[in-house]
Each structure stands twice: as structure tokens, then as C-alpha cells.
């Protein structure tokens, strides 16, 4: 079976110079093809790749389609049995691909990721996925090894294979047939949380998503949008509401109303801290969510009609509020949450 590693790039020549060499070096022993999907860069990214790594095939897009749109258009031009969506600011090591593929085969996972470590401090997990993603009863996302802004050491308790709710888009492995079956990523999300939406759609069809504990990569993070960017805040709040309205079963009006209230509390917290642009980003996210709601409901109906199983895969769901556990009870480690509270 063929595996293709696809790196999405937008004006990231500096990241390519730093991180692409490790991908090329690993490919020689791990037997995978390397592609760079260029999202209409205006720097010299494409020229630099063609000059230094002729073995890399570059797929040039005419403009920046975001993470979701860029990958959808780029992967449609790649013939492979398995895709790996790899951020341009990820450092890999020998054997990372073969290790994840072995775990996928052993556990019948259709999507997976390695452990995501901090490139600046590899003893710690990194924000974008850590040791696998989970979702609480209110639809808030968190990770093994990282709850909100609290990061754990990447010690042995997390270095085991585990089934999760979602796998990180920083280094996402997915079976090509399943990718095509669900239609890839949702273009409307543009960037942020699109991998969570993808994994949720897989799970609603009964497929399994996992994290390989024997492989790890090092992620710089914030390569395109830093955590202090209001646009990132906007995307995260808007996209969270979109994927919940698309994928969560049950009576949605009450659930969404509750989420809007919780988001409002977060917005007020931004305001009290003097972060006016973040406050406005949340307000804009809510406005745009309602403008996109008719489209979300159509997608919700489509997903409902295209499920191929009567029973959803709920592994990775947390039955309580992670907000209460973290902000009111002071629990900052997933290992301190009772396993009985997880599906």
C-alpha cells in the first residue's frame, strides 16, 4: 500500500527550510512519497523547494483556500492508499510513518496520529493534539496530555496506543477510501477544528480513530496564526459551533443555546481582561454561525442520511464538563479524571 505525506504551505518558506529536511530524510527509510500543496504563496516557497528538493512534487493552487480547502484540492490530485496531512512546522523522526501505520492496522483505525510534542520543549506535549483528542458533554475539546493551556510531560503513561475521539491535524493519517467516502474536510471551516469535524463524521459512521503511542513528532505550533491572534479566536468559536450543529445527535436548540451562554461567559472574561479584539471575535463568530446555520443544517441532514451504521462510535467522549473540572476543581491533568467518566 502506498502512503503519501502532504504538507500544506502558505508563505512558509522558513518553516520548509527548517522542517522539510527531516521529512525527506525519513522518507528514504519509511517508504512514503512527499508532496507540498502550495496555497497560492507569494514568497519563494515553490522556487526554494524546486531548487533544493527535486524529489518533492509540488501542487500549486491559485490562491489561499485555507487548511480545509487547500487539502481538499491538493489531495484530489494525489493517488495513494493512505494520506498523511502534515503541518509545515513539524519535525519528524525515522520510523514515524511505519509505526503509525502498524497501529492503524493492528487496531483497525481509519484515522490516526502520532504523539504531538512541543518542538521547543520535547519533554512536553504540544497544544495541537498532544496524546489524542476528547470531547466533553458540552462539546468542548481537550487532549490527553493537554487540557486548555496546561501541558503535561510526555511520560510513559501516554506512550501507549489508545482509541480517541479525534486525532491531530498537525500529523493526521487517514485511509484514502474513507477520506473520499466522507468527502474530505469541510471547506466552510477554512482552518481550525476541521480535523475534529472529519474525525467526528468518521465516528458517526462507526469508524475508529486512534493515537499511536510508539511514534511522536515535534510541532512548533502557531506557524500560521498565533494563539494571540483574534482571527484564530474567531475561527475556533465559530467552527466549534458549526461542527456541533452538524454532528452532535439529539435536540440541538437547547444544546446550542447552552453553548452560546458559555461562549458569552468567555467573551465577558475577555472584556474584563481588556482584550477587546477577542471579545469582538466571539461576537463575530456567533453572528457568522447564525448566518451559516441553514448550510450547517443541510450538512447535518446529509450526514444523517449517509451513515452506514446504526450505532455511533462514542469512544473518547467525556460525560462531565471539562470547564468545571479545570476552572473550578483545579484538575489540570487528564490522568486525574476518573476513567469511568469516559466512553
Layout of helices and strands, plus pairs?
Blueprint: E1 3-9, H1 13-30, E2 33-38, H2 45-52, E3 57-60, H3 66-75, E4 82-86, E5 90-91, H4 96-107, E6 109-118, E7 133-135, E8 141-143, E9 146-147, E10 150-151, E11 162-163, E12 171-175, H5 176-182, H6 194-204, E13 208-219, H7 230-247, H8 252-272, H9 276-305, H10 322-328
Parallel strand pairs: 1-2, 1-4, 2-3, 6-13
Antiparallel strand pairs: 4-12, 5-13, 6-12, 7-8, 9-10, 11-13
Helix pairs in contact: 6-7, 7-8, 7-9, 8-9
Which short descriptors sum up this protein?
single chain; 343 residues; two-stranded antiparallel sheet; Spore Coat Polysaccharide Biosynthesis Protein SpsA, Chain A; globular; 10 helices; nine-stranded mixed beta sheet; alpha/beta
Examine the secondary-structure arrangement and name the CATH architecture of the domain at 3-219.
Alpha-Beta Complex
What is the tally of helical segments?
Answer: 10
- Calculate the mean pLDDT score and round it: 94
Terminal-residue CA separation: 32 Å
CATH top level class name of the domain at 3-219: Alpha Beta
Order of helices and strands: EHEHEHEEHEEEEEEEHHEHHHH
**Total strand count, please?**
13
**What does the overall shape look like?**
globular
Structural class given helices, strands, pairing?
Answer: alpha/beta
Main sheet specs: 9 strands, mixed
| Share of residues in helices | 40-55%
Strand coverage percent: 15-25%
Radius of gyration: 19 Å
The parts where pLDDT drops under 50 for at least 5 residues are none
Question: Could you walk me through the main structural features you see in this protein, from its secondary elements to its overall organization?
Answer:
There is one protein chain. By secondary structure, the chain is of the alpha/beta class. The chain has a domain at 3-219: Spore Coat Polysaccharide Biosynthesis Protein SpsA, Chain A. Helix content is 41%, strand content 18%. The protein contains ten helices and 13 strands. It has helices at 13-30, 45-52, 66-75, 96-107, 176-182, 194-204, 230-247, 252-272, 276-305, 322-328, and strands at residues 3-9, 33-38, 57-60, 82-86, 90-91, 109-118, 133-135, 141-143, 146-147, 150-151, 162-163, 171-175, 208-219. Strands 1, 2, 3, 4, 5, 6, 11, 12 and 13 form a nine-stranded mixed β-sheet that branches. Strands 7-8 form a two-stranded antiparallel ribbon. Strands 9-10 form a two-stranded antiparallel sheet. Strand 1 (3-9), helix 1 (13-30) and strand 2 form a beta-alpha-beta unit. Helix 6 runs parallel beside helix 7 (230-247), helix 7 (230-247) packs antiparallel against helix 8 and helix 7 packs parallel to helix 9 (276-305). The protein is globular and about 55 Å long. The mean pLDDT is 94.
Amino acid at each position: 500500500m502506498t502512503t503519501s505525506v502532504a504538507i500544506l504551505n502558505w508563505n512558509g518558506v522558513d518553516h520548509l527550510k527548517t522542517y522539510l529536511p527531516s521529512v525527506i530524510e525519513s522518507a528514504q527509510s519509511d517508504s512514503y512519497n512527499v508532496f507540498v500543496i502550495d496555497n497560492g504563496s507569494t514568497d519563494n516557497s515553490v522556487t526554494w523547494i524546486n531548487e533544493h528538493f527535486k524529489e518533492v512534487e509540488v501542487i500549486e493552487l491559485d490562491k489561499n483556500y485555507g487548511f480545509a480547502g487547500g487539502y481538499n484540492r491538493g489531495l484530489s490530485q494525489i493517488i495513494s492508499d493512505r494520506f498523511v496531512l502534515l503541518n509545515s512546522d513539524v519535525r519528524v523522526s525515522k520510523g514515524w510513518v511505519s509505526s503509525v501505520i502498524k497501529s492503524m492496522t493492528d487496531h483497525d483505525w481509519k484515522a490516526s496520529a502520532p504523539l504531538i510534542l512541543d518542538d521547543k520543549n520535547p519533554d512536553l506535549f504540544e497544544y495541537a493534539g498532544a496524546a489524542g483528542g476528547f470531547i466533553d458533554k458540552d462539546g468542548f475539546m481537550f487532549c490527553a496530555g493537554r487540557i486548555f493551556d496546561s501541558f503535561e510531560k510526555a511520560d510513559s503513561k501516554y506512550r501507549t496506543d489508545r482509541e480517541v475521539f479525534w486525532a491531530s491535524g498537525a500529523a493526521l493519517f487517514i485511509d484514502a477510501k474513507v477520506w473520499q467516502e466522507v468527502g474530505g474536510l469541510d471547506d466552510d471551516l477554512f482552518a481550525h477544528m476541521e480535523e475534529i469535524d472529519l474525525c467526528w463524521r468518521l465516528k458517526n459512521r462507526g469508524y475508529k480513530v486512534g493515537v499511536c503511542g510508539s511514534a511522536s513528532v515535534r510541532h512548533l505550533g502557531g506557524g500560521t496564526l498565533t494563539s494571540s491572534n483574534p482571527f484564530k479566536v474567531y475561527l475556533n468559536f465559530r467552527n466549534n459551533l458549526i461542527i456541533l450543529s452538524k454532528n452532535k445527535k439529539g435536540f440541538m436548540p437547547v444544546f446550542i443555546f447552552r453553548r452560546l451562554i458559555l461562549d458569552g461567559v468567555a467573551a465577558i472574561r475577555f472584556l474584563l481582561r481588556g482584550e477587546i479584539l477577542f471579545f469582538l471575535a466571539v461576537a463575530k463568530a456567533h453572528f457568522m454561525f447564525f448566518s451559516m446555520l441553514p448550510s450547517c443544517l443541510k450538512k447535518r441532514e446529509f450526514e444523517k442520511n449517509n451513515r452506514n451504521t446504526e450505532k455511533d462510535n462514542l469512544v473518547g467522549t467525556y460525560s462531565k464538563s471539562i470547564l468545571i473540572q479545570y476552572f473550578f476543581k483545579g484538575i489540570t491533568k487528564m490522568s486525574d479524571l476518573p476513567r469511568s467518566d469516559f466512553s
